[in-house]
Design brief:
alpha+beta, single chain, about 40% helix, five-stranded mixed barrel, 5 strands
Length: about 190
């Protein structure tokens, strides 16, 4: 086995060596990611090092492995199709950069999924809502309103200081009372 490796030309030894080493590291990183063991690393191998706005997220150990993986295997696979070593190197670099680009795109999508999208009552302040259940006047009882916040409909309990608001009337949310009650006024 080693005789075949040392019989190869130097560029092919480099391609094979990088492909095998990068594959081993990639496999280890993938197993660690699925087990949740890479989240606390400080060497830039975790997902949290990919910045959505900057370039520094591209220069990480994980992306180095992704580049070497694409570069090495592209050099091995394309060596028969591209006999000119300069063009083979360029093609392998292109594939390596493509691997990094795809990885960063995937991680950006994963990071978007991890953002907090929970509804906060304060987000409804100032919004126009539809009365779903009649709201008794003078804070004598509670009704319900339907309001759209960030494209999502929410049915919330509401009361008013003014006159009774009938079902179907438009209201403006003016105040949050406690954690589950709104104060509204008719529009």
């Amino acid at each position: 086995m080693m005789d075949k490796f040392f019989a190869l030309e130097l560029p092919m030894q480099v391609f094979w060596g990088l492909a095998i080493i990068a594959s081993v590291f990639f496999l280890i990183q993938t197993i660690m990611a699925f087990l949740g063991l890479d989240a606390d690393t400080e060497d830039g191998a975790g997902f949290e090092d990919v910045e959505l706005d900057g370039v520094s997220g591209y220069f990480t150990f994980r992306n180095l492995i992704n580049f070497m993986l694409g570069y090495g295997w592209a050099g091995v696979v394309l060596s028969e199709s591209i006999p000119n070593m300069m063009w083979l190197q360029l093609a392998a670099m292109g594939v390596g950069l493509f691997f990094v680009f795809v990885f960063v795109l995937i991680i950006r999508q994963v990071m978007k999924l991890s953002t907090d999208k929970t509804f906060q009552m304060e987000e409804a302040l100032g919004q126009i809502a539809d009365t779903y259940l009649r709201i008794p006047g003078n804070k004598q009882g509670v009704g319900k309103v339907m309001v759209s916040v960030r494209g999502s409909m929410h049915e919330l309990e509401a009361m008013t200081e003014g006159e009774t608001i009938p079902t179907g009337a438009k209201v403006r949310i003016t105040k949050v009372i406690g954690s589950e009650l709104l104060e509204v006024e008719r529009v």
